[in-house]
Amino acid sequence: MHERDPQSQVNPAHLSSAVPSPAFAPTSAPNASLISNATPAPIFALVDGNSFYCSCERVFNPSLINQPVIVLSNNDGCVISRTDEAKAIGIKMGDPLHLIGDIIKRHRVRVYSSNYALYGDMSARMMTTLAQFTPELEVYSIDEAFLSLEGFEGRDLADYAREIRRVVRRDTGIPTAIGIGPTKVLAKVANRAAKKNKISGGVLNLCDRAAQDCVLAEFAVADVWGIGARSAAKLARMGVSTAMQLRDADIDAVQKLLTIVGRRIVLELRGQSCLALEMVQEDRKQIVSSKSFGRPVYKLDELKEAVANYATRACEKLRRQKSACHTLSVFVQTNRFKDIAQYYNSGTVNMGAGTANTSRLIAAANSVLENIFRDGIEYKKAGVILSDLRAASAVEFSLFDDQYKHAQDIKAMNVMDAINARMGRDTLGVGACGASAKVGQNANGASTPLTPAWTMKANMRTKCYTTRWQDLLKVG
DNA sequence: TCTGGGGTCCTAGGACCC
DNA sequence: TCTGGGGTCCTAGGACCC
């Protein structure tokens, strides 16, 4: 869902200037351009949940309000969400938990393992609420959405955005910030500035040039959407350190430095929309399931069990988008932070006519694993990558493929998915995944010494308030 | 003891073909 | 004995995002 190829990125609205006049427009042009020769300028609003994961936790635990709160990555590794209070005491994004023990103790920071079932459900609620305000909405990430406000020019856009914030807060409990601009990049800038500036009331409209100048002059170029650390360093060498300087820079020089991606960013900063709203979620081109282990793993059998579980997750995603996979890769690696001899190995297998059958993919993954496994190594992470994905309906058989078996495969998977959807994940699974994963967990699903080494650590997870009946909050 | 996971896009360079 | 160049496809690596 991020950068796209230039063709699909171009907003047709802006191609109109290249068309001599409606009379010469190709017959395939949308009718709108024949009716009106003034194509309306796009207006984007970016709505973004503040400290989203922490805010989700606060919704169900009001004692966290006004407290420093952080949410951790998988395996309780590092900080991936923090409240303003946590930011204020110096906790940074990505800080490893084991290095900030002092601050946590001193300030009584409330620490949580990530609970994606909860955050995913809260996200869906937020998006449903936003959809009430405009049919043109792009769900950009778990906590962000772009809205098109085209057609709302008649009203005060900042007022409308404040109304959106109020309703999202009322209906989901999630606080948001909203940035408005004529391009996605400017809407992103506006959103960030709105978050920083408390007097903005969480809303900033950067549609007019004077407002843009004012904000861009003070905006670090490294904070511009699409400019990462590498690009920022290159730009610094060119003497560009603010978003305003980037906007006004020689565009060809920028392209030379940052490729076509950089050029697009400059154009967007200038108010020329290159990145269109993408309302339909395209199918994934690859599906990855990989995780670090809770504890080091040494044995092939344990790796196989882990990989079987990852393949199962990946296959579920594959079937959800009705694709079949034609290439499967598996990788294993040591702990890159540990001062030991590093080992990384991966292997790939061709899945012939294509399949979305969990058992087949696990079997294939196992054979790859046997090839890349070396004895005597302390493994930290493994993963499965499904690629060369095509529509499941377009599976092509060769003379040697057993079509009957393929049809049986599909039936079996449909039954498994249906049961798991109704009774909960992993109610029905493939034997290779091991029953042991469920043994040795305490009541909250946290790991105990009996849990297999490969399973994730999540010792501070809250309940699934919105997705499990037994976890519903009791009032009174 | 302890450092996330899942994605996309762009470019350069090699292989291959004619 | 001399020994081209253009196009396409694929892959690996880099960069970025949340």
Descriptive account of the structure:
The protein has 476 residues and is α+β, with helices and mostly antiparallel strands. The chain folds into three domains: 1-8 and 40-207, 2-Layer Sandwich (Alpha-Beta Plaits), CATH 3.30.70; 217-281, 5' to 3' exonuclease, C-terminal subdomain (DNA polymerase, domain 1, Orthogonal Bundle); 287-434, DNA polymerase, Y-family, little finger domain (Dna Ligase, domain 1, 2-Layer Sandwich), CATH 3.30.1490.100. Helix content is 37%, strand content 18%. The protein is built from 16 helices and twelve strands. It has helices at 6-9, 12-15, 32-35, 52-60, 84-88, 101-106, 116-131, 157-172, 184-196, 209-216, 229-237, 243-247, 251-269, 300-320, 358-372, 403-423; strands at residues 44-49, 69-72, 79-82, 110-113, 137-141, 144-148, 176-181, 203-205, 287-297, 323-334, 344-355, 379-391. The strands form three sheets. It has a five-stranded mixed sheet with strand order 5-6-1-7-8. A four-stranded antiparallel sheet has the order 9-12-10-11. A three-stranded mixed sheet has the order 3-2-4. β5 (137-141) and β6 (144-148) form a beta hairpin. α7 crosses α8 and α14 (300-320) runs antiparallel to α15 (358-372). It starts with 5 loop residues before the first helix and ends in a 53-residue tail after the last helix. Residues 1-35 have low confidence and may be disordered. The structure holds a DNA duplex (18 and 18 nucleotides).
